[in-house]
Write a structure and sequence with these properties.
Helices cover 45% and strands 11% of the residues. The protein has 13 helices and 8 strands.
Length: 303
């Protein structure tokens, strides 16, 4: 398979698109990102990486970070995490408070904002926010084998200054006794976690542990990898998860920075980035590129 040729073709095709979606407007630092950018990278089970477009441009991974914090939380709490967070798709927007109210402060899954806030709160147990962020960065750097990965402090400040909706979620969860720390502590950690900056190449390398191939890093157990991949498939694109599964057929996690991390189990980790979002808050061109890649490689888990 000429994987590099496939990626070059996809990048060239994406360069012709005039409808590219719009960057997230509610985080001013993200709203300023040039929507004309597109990058894609793939790391295969043999450890080789292939990339095209703006694959080495750093961007804010935002909710893609929830994959890594979920892995850390499962390592720290094991199945006790599921007493605080569910495992079902939400069917509502990623930042909705309606379902949280109906289900009395127990978020539907760890990838919507409320669930990710609880997950971050869980890994804060016994640590300071600084120590927890250090642990998150160490995990991602080890996964990617790249110590240059960092937190974009300007994005973190922008999120903190405009994160009123997330504060509402955190206070509501706290009111139901499902937040162990002060909302300011948990959200301070959460906002900085979302502000981690990575390139497609770095993100694909960091996602290798989810491929479950014997030649790639084994940072968590094979059983936990299967569970994380299952949640990425069913919940990783919020209320667009079914559409992504239908069109792409790979476990994936999106972020409002325009990034998507996807996994072809046993075969490859894939990262794509284009900052313009569709109506569901997922990368418009990123989703299209993933669909093209899955078709041309035959990597869909559904055959």
């Amino acid at each position: 398979m000429d994987l590099r040729g496939i990626l070059d073709e996809i990048a060239a095709e994406m360069a012709t698109r005039s409808e590219r979606g719009a960057p997230a407007s509610y985080i001013p630092e993200l709203a300023r990102v040039d929507p004309g950018q597109f990058g894609i990278a793939v790391v295969t089970a043999d450890g080789r990486d292939h990339a095209a477009g703006d694959a080495d441009a750093a961007f804010s991974i935002q909710s893609v970070s929830k994959v890594f914090t979920l892995a850390l939380a499962l390592g720290k709490l094991g199945d006790r995490l599921w007493t605080r967070v569910g495992r079902e798709p939400s069917g509502l927007a990623f930042n909705s408070i309606l379902q949280l109210e109906h289900e009395k402060g127990r978020p539907r899954n760890p990838f919507i904002n409320s669930g990710a806030i609880v997950t971050t709160d869980a890994i804060l147990e016994g640590s300071t926010p600084r120590e927890t962020l250090g642990a998150i960065l160490r995990f991602i750097r080890e996964a990617a084998e790249d110590d240059a990965i960092h937190i974009d402090k300007a994005v973190a400040r922008s999120e903190t200054a405009h994160g009123h909706g997330n504060f509402a979620l955190a206070h509501y969860i706290k009111a139901h006794g499902n937040l162990r720390h002060a909302p300011e502590l948990t959200l301070g950690t959460y906002f900085h976690q979302c502000a981690i900056a990575m390139s497609c190449r770095q993100l694909a390398r960091a996602g290798r542990f989810l491929v479950n191939a014997p030649t790639l890093p084994r940072l968590v157990s094979a059983e936990r990898v299967r569970r994380i991949n299952a949640l990425m498939m069913t919940c990783g694109h919020y209320d667009g998860s079914g559409e992504f599964a239908f069109r792409v057929g790979l476990p994936g996690k999106s972020g409002v920075g325009g990034g998507i991390l996807a996994v072809a189990p046993g075969k490859a980790a894939i990262a794509v980035w284009s900052p313009g979002l569709n109506a569901r808050g997922n990368s418009a061109l990123g989703t299209e590129a993933m669909e093209m890649l899955a078709r041309r490689t035959g990597w869909s888990v559904f055959g």
